[in-house]
C-alpha cells in the first residue's frame, strides 16, 4: 500500500496486530504527555469554580472566569514561537524537549501562583492568575501536540491519539479529585501546589524518550525574511496543497451539529425532569465508560481499516447520535433511554475523537507541527463555540427539542458528504502533510 493515510496493520488481520501498537514506546509516550496536557484545564475549570464558590464569590463572577478558556482558542497566534525559536543553552537538548521543559516549568509556576492568591481579597488578581494558567496550559498543549505527532509513526497516529486522550482524561480527572481531597484536609493553596506536580509526566517523558525522531527544523533564514517565514510559512505551506481550502472547510463544518447538540443537553434533561442522581448515573457515569471504550475501538478501527474509512464511519456515527436525542425527547423520561442515548453518543464521540484527531495530526508538515496543529485544532472548535453558542437556546425555544435535534442531524450531513467526496476525489491523500507520511514523510506500517 503506497498511501500512508491508508496505512493499516499488516498480517492476516489478527486482533493482536491492532492492539500491539498500544504497548509501543511511542504510544506510551503519547499517554504520559496527555496526562500533563489535561490538568491545567481542570485547574481553571470545575476545580476553580468549586474553590470560588466555597469562598463565597458570587455566581455571576464565577461564571465570568470561563473567559480564561478563550486563550486555548488563540494559541495558534504564538505557536510559531515553539516551532521557530531555539532556546539558548537548554536548546541543546532538542527543540521539542527544551520547550517541553520550559513550558512545563511555566505551567507549574502559573499553578503555584494561582494557589497563593486569595479570591476574597483580590478577585481581579485571581482572574489574572487564572488567565496566566490558561496561557501556560495552552502553550504546554502546543508543545505536547507537536511532540506527540512527531514521536508517533504514521501508522501509530490513531492509537497514539487515543492514548493521548486517555491521558488527558486521567490527568484532568486526577487533578480535580486530588484538589478536592487535599483542600478538604488542608486548604486550596496546598491543593493547587500538589496538582502542579502533574506537569512532570510530560517533562520526564521528553527527557527519557528524547527528541522526536521525525522532528524537522524549518529552513533557517536571517533578518526580516526569517520572521516572516516563522509566522506565515506554516500557513502558506498548508494552503499550497491541493484541496487545502476544502480541507479547511471540512475542519470548520464537521463539528457544528455535535456542538449544537451538546450545548443544550442539560437543558433537555432538566426539562424532562431528570434528577441530579439520575443524570450522575445515566449521563455522566454511563457516558464516561462508553467514551473510554469508544477511544479504544477508535484506535483499533484506525489501525485495521485506515484513515479514510475510519473517519467516515465516525462522522456517520456522530451524526446518528444526534438523532438519538430526538428519539429520547419524543419518548420522554426514561433512565434506560438516557443510558442508551448517552452511551451511544459518547461511544461515537470516543471513536471520532481518536480518528479525527489522527487525521488532523496527519495534516501537519513536520517543519511546522506546532503551528499547523494549533491552527487546525482552533478552527475545529471556533465555529461551534462562537456561532452556535449564540443561537442554540433561541432555536430550541422556537422549534422544540425533537425538531432541534433532527436539525443537528441534518447539519452533520454536509461534513460527512464533503469528506466522502474528498476521499473519492483523492484530495485526502493530496492534502496530507509529512506527519501523515505525505510528500517526504515516512510511510511506515507495523510489521
List the helices and strands and how they pair.
Blueprint: H1 15-19, H2 25-43, H3 46-54, H4 59-64, H5 70-73, H6 79-84, H7 95-116, H8 123-151, H9 157-185, H10 188-195, H11 200-209, H12 224-239, H13 244-253, H14 256-263, H15 265-271, H16 276-305, H17 307-331, H18 335-362, H19 369-386, H20 392-425, H21 427-430
Keywords:
447 residues; mainly alpha; disordered N terminus; disordered C terminus
Q: Number of helical segments?
A: 21
C-alpha Rg (nearest Å): 22 Å
Q: Provide the CATH topology.
A: Growth Hormone, Chain: A
| Run of helices and strands | HHHHHHHHHHHHHHHHHHHHH
Protein model, in words:
- The protein is mostly helical.
- The chain has one domain: Growth Hormone, Chain: A.
- It has helices at residues 15-19, 25-43, 46-54, 59-64, 70-73, 79-84, 95-116, 123-151, 157-185, 188-195, 200-209, 224-239, 244-253, 256-263, 265-271, 276-305, 307-331, 335-362, 369-386, 392-425, 427-430.
- It is globular.
Describe this structure in a few short sentences.
The chain is an all-alpha fold.
